Amino acid sequence: MKISIITATYNSEKIIISSLTSINFQTYKNVESVIIDGASKDNTVSKIKKIFTGDLKIISEKDNGIYDALNKGINLACGDVIGFVHSDDFLASREVLSKIARVFQE
Fold first, then answer.
1. Cβ distance 87 to 19 under 8 Å?
2. What CATH number does the domain containing 34 carry?
3. How do residues 74-102 score in pLDDT, each as one tens digit?
């Protein structure tokens, strides 16, 4: 089962690290990260490409706000389960996605 995590960003270079790190270090590995960046004017996109080590889809273009960005992410996601982790959020433990996958598999 694949889990897609969608993250909407805009000028998030200072806060995106904890979000992506929390996804990178999940024990559940069948995860894709879909990042929709609203054409940031800082180094958000380059920082994402340096930090994230897994399956990554990224679009950086002007959008019509966070809900437009999240809908773009949903359209790109390939996972059986889709979740959202915003650029200033993080997953509370390394086991979060494993627990979610287990519940959906049951």
1. yes
2. 3.90.550.10
3. 999 999 999 999 999 999 999 999 999 99
